[in-house]
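Why should sequence recovery work at all? Because a backbone constrains its sequence more than one might expect. Tight turns favour small or flexible residues, buried strands favour hydrophobic ones, and helices have their own preferences. The token representation captures these environments compactly. In the example below, the structure is given first.
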């Protein structure tokens, strides 16, 4: 069954513990934490202190999505703050630095994921695939919640599904941005393993019901 990762970007930050408990009790699999630096993306969100605090109040798998420049500078700190999976962007540094960040996380016993923005060809991921626990396909331009799903990104999910199956890898395929029950179905059919949803879950009257609907 597909996993659901609610993104706290759309939660009420003044009531973050309450909102996390709602999705935890509502059947979420992962908790998606969007970290933005105002440089790699045109927005600033949350960082290390918040990850540390969240770690104390939930047992959900913390899926930390770093939208920051030169992520190798910070991956160790996020691992130590309590992230279970640290995902960062292929576009955020030179390939050798990306490899360095992957190896840092591996040596700390953490799961590691790489993400690509909508304009990045999926083939750019191939050299990294055997080292990854997760690949994250952005189905909106990263930076903001509540944007419209870019349907043309679905072919990347299909290409990744084929690659992972052909090579016998255990890498999960995650999709992030613009997901609602309808777009979620398209992603599941294309072979996604994990769906991130921010506004769909947290603006729903019944977040638990929405999590179920997203699973299809
Ligand atoms: C966007 C973030 C997403 C965001 C998704 O840059 O990476 O995780 O929270 O929000 P929705 O589900 O509202 O598109
Ligand atoms: Zn995200």
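From this structural description, the recovered sequence reads:
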């Amino acid at each position: 069954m597909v996993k659901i990762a609610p993104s706290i970007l759309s939660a009420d930050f003044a009531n973050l513990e309450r909102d996390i408990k709602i999705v935890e009790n509502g059947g979420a699999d992962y908790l998606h934490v969007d970290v933005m630096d105002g440089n790699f993306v045109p927005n600033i969100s949350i960082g290390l202190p918040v990850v540390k605090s969240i770690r104390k109040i939930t047992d959900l798998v913390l899926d930390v999505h770093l939208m920051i420049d030169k992520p190798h500078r910070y991956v160790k700190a996020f691992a130590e703050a309590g992230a279970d999976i640290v995902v960062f962007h292929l576009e955020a540094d030179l390939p050798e630095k990306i490899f360095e960040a992957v190896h840092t996380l591996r040596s700390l016993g953490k799961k590691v994921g790489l993400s690509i923005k909508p304009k990045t060809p999926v083939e750019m991921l191939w050299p990294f695939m055997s080292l990854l626990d997760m690949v994250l396909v952005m189905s909106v331009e990263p930076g903001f919640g509540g944007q419209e799903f870019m349907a043309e990104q679905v072919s990347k999910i299909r290409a990744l599904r084929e690659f992972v199956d052909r090579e016998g890898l255990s890498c999960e395929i995650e999709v992030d941005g613009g997901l609602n029950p309808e777009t979620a179905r398209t992603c599941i059919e294309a072979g996604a393993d994990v769906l991130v949803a921010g506004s769909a879950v947290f603006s729903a009257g019944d977040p638990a019901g929405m999590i179920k609907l997203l699973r299809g």
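A few observations help interpret the result. The first helix runs from residue 16 to 25.
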